[in-house]
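User: Here's a structure from my thesis project, written as C-alpha cells. My advisor, Dr. K., wants to see whether a designed sequence matches the one we expressed. Can you design one independently, without my sequence as a hint?
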C-alpha cells in the first residue's frame, strides 16, 4: 500500500512555507491536501484512506488532488524495494516547495540533517549527481516495467475476450494509471476474467470489454472488489460504462 512521508522544517506549530499557498497553478483542493499532509509529523506514515476520512471529498477527488501535487512536484513518487531488490509499493515524499529532482534541495531534509543554508562541496555535488543518475534510471526502469505490464494486460484481454486491441498510448494510459495506483498484473487479470464471464455473451455489453471501460479510475476498483468477492451479485450491467 502506498504511503506518504512529509519533508519539512520541524516545529510544534503548523508553520509552513507560503509558496504553495500563493501558487496560482494549484487548485484549492490540492492546497488543502498539501497543508494536511505537511501538518503531520515527519515520521508518520499517511495512507490515502486516512486523507479521505478527514475530508468531505470522495476518494476520486482526493486522488486527483494528489495527482495534481505530483505533477507540480510538491509530491515525488518513488518505488520501494525489499531486501532482495524486488519492487514493492510506492512511497510519496511531500515537499513544502516544488522539488526539482537534482536541481533543488530547498526544504528537503535528509535523515534529520537540513541542507537549507548549507554550502555544497564538490564531493556533495558528485554525490547528488550520482543520486540523480540513479533516480533517473529507476524512473526509466519503472516506466519500462509499467509499459511491459500494460502490454501483457492487453494480450490477456485479447485472449480472453477474443478482441484485437493494440498496445497504443491511448489504451496503455488507462492501465498505467492503475499501476500508478499500486495495482498489479494479477489484479487486471481478475477484472478481465470477471467481466468477460459476465459480458462476453451479451451482445450489448460485449463492446465494453475494452481498456477504456475496464481500467478507468471510476470502474476498476469496483470491478476488482466484485472479482475478489467471488460471488454472483445483483448489478445493473449498463451502469458505469463509457
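Assistant: Designed independently from the structure alone:
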Amino acid at each position: 500500500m502506498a504511503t506518504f512521508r512529509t519533508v519539512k522544517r520541524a516545529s510544534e506549530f503548523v508553520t509552513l512555507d507560503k509558496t504553495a499557498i500563493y501558487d496560482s497553478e494549484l487548485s484549492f483542493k490540492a492546497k488543502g491536501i498539501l497543508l494536511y499532509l505537511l501538518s503531520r509529523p515527519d515520521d508518520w506514515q499517511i495512507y490515502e484512506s486516512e486523507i479521505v476520512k478527514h475530508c468531505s471529498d470522495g476518494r476520486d477527488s482526493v486522488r486527483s488532488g494528489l495527482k495534481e501535487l505530483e505533477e507540480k512536484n510538491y509530491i515525488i513518487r518513488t518505488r520501494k524495494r525489499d531486501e532482495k531488490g524486488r519492487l514493492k509499493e510506492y512511497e510519496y515524499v511531500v515537499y513544502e516547495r516544488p522539488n526539482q529532482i537534482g536541481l533543488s534541495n530547498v526544504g528537503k531534509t535528509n535523515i534529520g540533517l537540513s541542507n537549507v543554508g548549507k554550502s555544497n562541496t564538490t564531493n556533495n555535488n558528485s554525490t547528488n549527481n550520482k543520486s540523480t543518475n540513479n533516480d533517473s534510471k529507476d524512473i526509466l526502469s519503472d516506466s519500462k516495467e509499467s509499459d511491459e505490464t500494460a502490454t501483457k494486460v492487453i494480450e490477456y484481454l485479447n485472449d480472453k475476450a477474443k478482441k484485437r486491441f493494440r498496445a497504443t498510448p491511448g489504451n496503455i494510459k488507462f492501465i498505467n494509471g492503475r499501476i500508478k495506483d499500486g495495482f498489479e498484473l494479477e489484479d487486471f487479470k481478475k477484472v478481465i476474467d470477471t467481466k468477460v464471464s459476465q459480458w462476453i455473451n451479451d451482445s450489448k455489453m460485449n463492446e465494453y470489454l475494452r481498456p477504456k471501460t475496464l481500467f478507468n479510475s471510476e470502474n476498476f476498483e469496483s470491478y476488482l472488489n466484485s472479482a475478489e468477492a467471488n460471488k454472483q451479485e445483483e448489478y445493473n450491467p449498463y451502469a458505469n460504462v463509457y
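When you compare it with your expressed construct, this may help: Helices lie at 28-38, 48-53, 59-71, 122-161, 169-180, 185-199, 211-214, 220-229.
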